């Protein structure tokens, strides 16, 4: 069955005719703006090697935990979706079978962001003009599969077609960044940059922490057996990342706690972290100290700092045991920014050389904590609605609860935070549409003039991200 | 004064003409569907005995804590509303006087769900065509009173007129279920089933807990002085409930905490619970352990498990002393599902034989905790907006915050959770209207196609509840 | 550039034509009602002395922490905005320069309540008909400056022009209230009353607490070195405030915790508080005990009690060190009303002689805690959306989350809570418009009849505040 509304030009605009007309006019200012993607998790190897993507299932389903966790929640085994097991036991490898299973359950995604971007990708990227059903599954599979074999569906071609101005990936300090070096030396004009994600070497609970710290010492030729050597190694590595285009660091902590211990306490804590597992409170103290150290280094080297706290990782031990991390079993928890960030803000909150972009999985903090903090401290900006809230309703709640206290200028624009490359145009388009719809309402009830809203629409879609992430240079 | 809008056909539909037209079309698919009421607190004696309801006040006001607590909050003594005192001191017994007092304060209910269902019941069930005021109070009282004397206003006749397909009540494990047996043996075709509510025998803080456990032993002929005998007795009693149609259990805990102690710890904790009052932490541990035991039994016997946590019961000691439990003084508190449920989910979260339906009084958990949990664990479903949130705005917030992460299929449809029999048609109608209005918005902004929304409307009104509560069999 | 929408007659009304038409009709009932302002922080000296306000910057920018903290968050030093330093070091004193700096950054305020009331004041009070920009800054400055020199822009004239029926200020128990006495003896008809704000003498962490308690003893000739003398002094001072028109007290605590210690414990705690700094838990216990004592005194003397908890004051130590309190660095925190207020409510929650009006900075408590509490306890009322939430979206969320459980009658109407005198008409107008828009939606979807909504609009704008604050007498 074909669907007349498969991708309406008015999608996500308010139904009221006055608001919709304004939203259309605002959207006309932003629809064709280049994509600025300062935070994400695509694989730089795609752009370094520029090889064809594998089959549709391997591209769109198998690696996407948003997609397979929804199917899993309805009783479909991950094995049948091709998600690899850690023990190497067999899982489905036939992309077509996986795709059919997915298509049969497509109705489960009604109303979800996954459905939105997949529909957008099918329609806009692959030219599919019929609805995905059990009946159309094979036809659509074949169409995508055929596309993927064409040169214009290789990563670099899609990057250009998607009109991406800059795309940041995220790497560990231990990563040699060979792909980024290869991209740079290839002569290709696409701007793909890295971001410094130090969790493996600053979180004492991270798998392999001690070995990672040792490796960090080897890479940087610093003595990471001492606190001062460890800090030097990190500063050194940040410098290396910056030399390959990085403008930001990214920190995925369980909480927003920060600490400001004395140098002696830091040294002692660090030595105990090197010796063996820390007690949970000490691990928390160490991580929180490292946020402060990272802020201090940001003041020095100018890298923008991002903090993504609040996920209870790997909530499901059976899934973790069988399939590993990032399998849709990370669950948000309450987060306290007001007390948590205070030690860091006491030190650097008034320092304009620092930009600290905050994200949350606890929407109750938007109006209560994050907007008041960002509406006061020069060092703070608010990142966009994140992860579970990177969705039309989530984005609307973000604007409604953040704007009146923080304004628009203390936000950092949109970022897609995705590992699903094909979702990038859709995600930015959704954000632009939702923001235009939001602004349209405020124009319609005379809170903003339309010329102001048009300026803001461009800021939200483009300028704020460039500015917050220092991408203008 | 008559009110043209006493019960508009368009009530609760979005005012925007586009959305309203869609909502009307969607509602046409669901308005006449039978009522599935898998969770509630009506009195099975009504359907067993089928006697006439007493006067209007005794039917609609005296037993409804939503109604009398609002009047109480504005300074009206509960005695004057006929709420019985525990000490037997006199309270108002004249139904007409109570009704007049209620009618004089009817304006206090503007905007509340109580006003909605009472208006619906007056209009649709009793044919009242004027607004309730001090002036109309007597006329309306007489009309209702006259109706209640007619055979077509007896419980079974109303059950049929309300088009109820199945109605679940809730009983203690100590209840002999004589009414349910009588209904079954009466030859009446109405499907009235029980649900297993074990709080009196699994909550060590429950009044009479020790005597209750002893009584449980007598009823089941198990030795409830030992942990294993106690568990056997519970399993036995669940079986008895299932034999009288029960498909579910219901658990009303102060928190969502669960525990997975060793058998030795369980035995020791149980013995101490039998000896005397437990320390609060131990009572919490015992209750939490019992949730895990109940889940284990559900895996065995297939009963669907419902968890309703988060009420601080009997917050007002004076009201509790004078009037007892369930008098409008239960106040919600913050609830932590992510850490609380982990021990239970570690054991049974991936087991498709378990269905655990979660409710909340803490809306901040919808998007942060409940939707991510239900959108991942096969054993979890989300119950509808509950108690204080069983209202148009509450239902809207539920859909807006839950759907994008959990989808529609991880929700369990509507249930009315009411002891007010006459409110049942109104409550289901409100839910259907609000859901159709919600879906209409998403059709109007092209997030859903209308044929999909029509399917979903039927799911939300009918199929999901039947499926989640295993009522199809 | 002139702006056609500088102040639209339809501002803040819903864009849907049906809702907007209803909102207009409802607003016609309330637009000209007198302003009842039962809680605020204007300076009584203005009305006692009736001197001209200084220049535009000193009136509108320098004292307004909402305004300068937004500019500060974007990197503008407070010194350049004329905010005085504690160390007396120079700050900008040229009002015109400050005004220009403000005008250049006016776009930062898009979508904020500050922008709304400033636009309203410029347009309605000063007759400005062009948009504020760098280009128009001087012209607008000159126009305001010229106005301020006219007698019709003196405080009393504006008070009358603003149609203020009653205006409450807030004073410390140590304040001799000379301005209020002067206003009373002046023969001027304006009703300006005080409110009793005892934080300086009941919060042991308040700067100068011990000296303040001693001063309280001197003023009242009670022995404030004993618990009983201290209580007598407070009761005495409340009486004095009441004699100058006060109908309320105001309490700005970090949490909502209350305590009900034995007299012996109170005496001991008080003695320790007099001796020196209390441990944080003891300071909390003392403050919480004092809330209970204040409630007890309210039962006796009839003063309405207001509780404003939840701000983490002076979060930014550098700002506090250099500029002092109330500089935009107070950040909300989570607040627990259910457990916190229980000791107080156990004592006085059912006592109709007490009116306790609750405010919050934690919106997650609206539906979960505050509406259920206010919808039950006769002593409780909910204050309006407060501080960061005194804004169109904040007010809308308040009504949407509070009304279905608490109704309208358990709320206390609007109050402006402002120290910005010129913002008062705008703030009340915004509240009236948002409430009319809210009611219009409920009329449009048939939850209310329009005549009911018209009554409610008047209640929300006028009657409820008069009644809750006992201003009718």
From TrEMBL, chains A, B, C:
This protein's superkingdom?
Bacteria
Protein's pathway: Carbohydrate metabolism; pentose and glucuronate interconversion
Give the molecular function GO annotations: glucuronate isomerase activity
Entries under Pfam families matching the protein: UxaC
Quickly give the catalysed reaction: D-glucuronate = D-fructuronate; aldehydo-D-galacturonate = keto-D-tagaturonate
Cite the entry's keywords alphabetically. Answer: Isomerase
Q: What class of enzyme is it?
A: isomerase
Q: Give yes or no: UniProt keyword Isomerase.
A: yes
Q: What is its EC number?
A: 5.3.1.12
Q: Which protein family is it in?
A: Belongs to the metallo-dependent hydrolases superfamily. Uronate isomerase family.
Q: What is this protein called?
A: Uronate isomerase
This chain's source organism reads: Pendulispora albinea
- Gene this protein is translated from: uxaC
